[in-house]
């Protein structure tokens, strides 16, 4: 194997699994459409209302269903055929995009209806996310799961950069209706990619229905130290150090409010993330996601603190690129731990919890940054956030030896020779509980 092939993202999953290859192509095209719709909704709501309150409601319409539906959807997915659940999610999301396209062409629908369609589509996404969370561990060998996650991540990041640009062109030439229609058509590729999947019922005991199944999933999360530590590290990185809400203020304090500098801040994070994922071959082949995640999350906090200290625009952009790269590696490592250390029968619920953490953490972090900056300054909020993140990550790593030694699909250090799924806290229902029933 050449040095270049070892450094670049590991493409073995594309060769070893035609099913994964087709699934990746379908999801990549659909992700492009998803970012187009995100931009189009924001544009339409602002163009209709010119209200920052309504614009802020777009984020709520996307986030609240994911949080409210996610855990219950994960429990249902852990009782059902995950392939069928994902196909249902895809069809439902596509139908919402069609309805958005219809209202876009007519132009006579109240903004509240647009947000309601966005919320329904997000609810279908809350079903699809935990269903898709089981695909890679079932389709790929254990030593290729991290590589499959990296391929998902790098294609998703590429679409995050491309989608808004394409949306801008389509909006300028043909309007909001066509943008929504393009998104609806991209779901056809997602359906095609998932239709060839084999049946994927849960392996092991199915989830109990309703709240009981959710509580079983939460019991696993609190009892499995490596998985719990991975999510805590992610929360520490986002809640304590998320910088996006501080960029306008820091740009005003340090760089004279130049809009060109402000735009480059977010671009630097994205460029660093794409570059790190594209060069993730050594990380995914190392098969030590626990130590890698701890180091990457620490670098994220340190880089943001240094960004707060710098007065040079170029040095600041360099620190943000480093932070973006570290964040991508940390997210990749966290997902590897979750997907290789969680029993298949619980993976839907744990993936749903991971998605909620990924959604809520950045929003809370941006709120924290804004509040601290209001009391002090943007610079202080950045520096203190980065240092608190570094301290919290160090604390989690110090108190969680299972995370420091976590291998992809390996054994828990506290119970040598015993699989991670077996050494977790028990999640089987008590003997007096009623048996689980099909949905």
Automatic annotation (TrEMBL):
It is a multi-pass membrane protein. Residues 402-439 are annotated as: Disordered. The chain crosses the membrane at residues 24-46, 52-73, 149-174, 229-250, 262-279, 291-307. It is found in: Cell inner membrane. GO terms for cellular component: plasma membrane. Residues 427-439 have a biased composition (Pro residues). Keywords: Cell membrane, Membrane, Transmembrane, Transmembrane helix, Transport. Its main location: membrane. The keyword Cytoplasm does not apply. The keyword ATP-binding does not apply. InterPro entries: MFS_trans_sf, TM_effector. It comes from the Bacteria. This is MFS transporter.
